[in-house]
Design goal:
Blueprint: H1 4-14, E1 21-26, H2 31-46, E2 50-54, E3 62-67, E4 72-77, H3 85-95, H4 104-112, E5 117-123, H5 130-143, E6 147-153, H6 158-163, E7 171-174, E8 177-181, H7 186-193, H8 197-206, E9 211-216, H9 220-231, E10 236-240, E11 252-253, E12 262-263, H10 264-276, E13 280-284, E14 288-294, E15 296-301, E16 306-314
This protein binds flavin-adenine dinucleotide.
The site of flavin-adenine dinucleotide (FAD) has 29 residues, from helix 9 and strand 10.
Length: about 350
């Protein structure tokens, strides 16, 4: 299934496994199932810590990646190739004890989530936003055994796509109900699941002392302003709805002046690392609602918290222009799209 080069790379990655990982494959006589079985065998051949068993599952062909120690389960229904191959490799690594790159606080919040959360995520293998969502949900599933995620290749499971009226991907269902369409991060998923999270965050934000400079916006402009300000010794904070800004809506960037070619996850990670080189307080996933002047500037956030600062710099960039026509919000992601290669992928 995999060519020699990819097999070698996989072998190198799987050297990071620290504990056993089990694959459970559901296969039949179809060509796709044969390819999936062959992929499972390639994985097993790449590490002594991986084993495979065959068992009829809810969807065929599918492959579950299981940590037998605590029972976490990440499933791929269809063949996780194309953009989803990285999701498969990460699922193997995370299930096998390789550290998950999330803040310790976020990991703990995921671990403590009360209840059972079974996600089903419909993707197309050519969709560029899909792996980000799959990887976010898979990380959650690798942390908490009460959370599962199934990646479903819509092209192979057309009946489900029709039954569930799925018009674009990634489309996420939680416990059988529609949950989200389009890009969504781990923290955004958590905020939707953990109703008390916003209140707890607001309490913490209200404790912050007055900033010298508070930047609203975490795109390239906001990041540059914060770096400049922190370099001058000012007590600086960034409050941003989505750190990274608009660029996060795409994948390949080829005209960011002085960087001839890069991919957005790398660009955003570099942006964040550059800001973190300085003493900047990044308050991500926080939306500012209003600005008032009472001697100092008060910025009130959607979570209910208020931040004070001597100076406020607004770098809120741009967002999709809405037409405000009936049905626009209702059919967002179900036919209404704002950018064909960001949120308009169809199966
Ligand atoms: C699909 C796409 C592809 C692109 N490709 C390229 C490219 O290849 N090369 C290139 O140079 N440029 C590209 N751009 C343009 C580039 O993304 C923008 O020029 C750049 O992001 C502008 O940066 P900014 O910081 O001014 O604003 P933005 O990136 O828009 O950032 C705004 C920030 O403010 C935050 N924000 C907004 N309102 C609030 C609020 N109320 N409370 C808190 N935070 C808020 C947002 O969450 C975000 O963090 C592309 C844009 C898109 C959409």
């Amino acid at each position: 299934m995999l060519d020699a080069n990819v097999k070698n790379q996989l072998k190198t990655y799987l050297q990071n496994l620290k504990r056993p990982v089990e694959l459970v494959v559901s296969a039949d006589d179809s060509n796709k199932a044969k390819e999936l079985s062959s992929l499972a065998q390639d994985i097993v051949d790449s590490s002594d810590l991986v084993s495979v068993t065959y068992q009829q599952g809810k969807r065929t062909p599918s492959m579950s990646v299981i940590n037998p120690q605590n029972g976490t389960n990440i499933t791929f229904a269809g063949l996780p190739m194309g953009h989803e191959f990285t999701s498969l490799v990460l699922a193997l690594l995370h299930s096998g004890g390789h550290p998950i790159k999330l803040d310790e606080q976020v990991i703990e919040q995921i671990r403590q989530l009360p209840g059972e959360f079974h996600f089903e995520t419909y993707v197309s293998l050519s969709c560029q936003t899909c792996p980000e969502v799959i990887q976010a949900l898979n990380m959650m599933a690798a942390i908490n055994p009460n959370i599962t995620n199934v990646m479903i290749d819509g092209a192979l499971f057309q009946e489900e796509v029709t039954d569930r009226n799925i018009m674009s991907v990634p489309s996420v269902f939680l416990n059988g109900e529609a949950f989200s369409v389009g890009a969504i991060s781990v923290v955004e998923v958590l905020n939707k699941l953990d109703k008390n999270a916003a209140g707890r965050q607001a309490e913490q934000l209200n404790q912050k002392s007055t900033f010298d400079m508070l930047v609203v916006g975490g795109g390239s402009a906001g990041a540059a302003a914060a770096i400049y300000s922190a370099r001058k010794g000012l007590n600086t904070g960034i409050v941003a709805d989505k750190f990274g800004g608009q660029v996060a809506e795409t994948v390949g960037i080829e005209n960011f002046i002085s960087v001839s070619k890069t991919e957005v996850p790398k660009l955003v990670a570099n942006l964040e690392a550059h800001v973190k080189d300085y003493d900047v307080d990044i308050m991500a996933n926080q939306r500012a609602l209003s600005l008032a002047k009472n001697g100092l500037f008060d910025v009130t956030l959607e979570s209910g918290a208020t931040l004070s600062s001597k100076t406020v710099l607004l770098a809120t960039g741009a967002r999709w222009r809405e037409m405000n026509v009936p049905g626009e919000q209702e059919y967002r992601g179900k036919g209404v799209a704002y950018c064909p290669h960001c949120d308009g992928f169809v199966i």
